Amino acid sequence: MQLHHLKAFLVLAQELNFRRAAERLALTQPGLSDQIRQLERELRVALFRRDRSGTRLSPAGRRLLPMASDAVGSVEDLISAAHAMRPSGLQRSSPVLRVGMVVDGIGDGTWPLLQAFHQLRPEVRLDIRSLSFIEGSVAIDRGTVNVVLKMGPSNDTELQQVIPIRDDQMSAIVPANSPLTREETVELEVVARRMTFQTPIELGDRYSRHWTLRKMRDAAPSRSLSVLRDGPSDSDLYSLVNRFMQIGGVALWPAGLPVPSGVRCVELPLDRPFHSPREIVINRRSDHALAFAACWPDFDPSSYRPE
């Protein structure tokens, strides 16, 4: 199995668009298609489905995506560790900054920020990984990445610092066959009663208060709450949202962010403003992570608090 085939799988899974994925990989579209076909032949499963609505992961692709991400990360960690063992005169490997993205990172500011860092530190190779909600909240403390671009409040820890970027307006997504689709707006209290996401304790109190709307949930009849737990298997956003819709749940969603193709749901505005923060979370011990944050135009260096 070729490492570059797995990388092609990961990039196409992020983009769900052959043209954009090929551009990121510096390949032609036929070249990318050939790599995906070779990987599918070796694995003996179809990783993607293509139809008039676009490209999406197959059920097998959704299950294998987290394992492929771990495999690529492990190989790159092995290479980095081996290079670090060489005598100083023989070390030729470039430094690496591992960046984790939850959903679409910090929205439309994600790629300009990555490009700005590349221009500032061209010698540093960027390793970009897709993270689930839970992974995005613990990845820095676990040493998986040194930067996380995410939505939803995080807590400062001994190792990580949170840099707020902006607040995004949220909307609601509901199943396509829900009676709620006949309404012009969805009441925030309705979302609170029918949310299918229970925030795991690992994410911290601040995240839990924000996403579960605890005061309203506590006032709702317990029989109206369908509870799921997000986990590593939900690193593919399609799988997570699709589960919400299949059991008739309602979820909060960034207004204007396209819903994953293939999910039968409708996006509706909320009856009143509800915002979620976008954040850059960095490892305090990483000089490259600090330089990355400094590429954000509104970053205040005086706010940086080293360990």
UniProtKB/TrEMBL annotation:
Pfam families: HTH_1, LysR_substrate. CDD domains: PBP2_LTTR_substrate (cd05466). It comes from the Bacteria. One of its GO terms (cellular component) is protein-DNA complex. Keywords: DNA-binding, Transcription, Transcription regulation. One of its GO terms (molecular function) is DNA-binding transcription factor activity. InterPro entries: LysR_HTH_N, LysR_subst-bd, WH-like_DNA-bd_sf, WH_DNA-bd_sf. The keyword Nucleotidyltransferase does not apply. Residues 1-58 form the HTH lysR-type domain. The keyword Endoplasmic reticulum does not apply. Belongs to the LysR transcriptional regulatory family. This is Transcriptional regulator, LysR family.
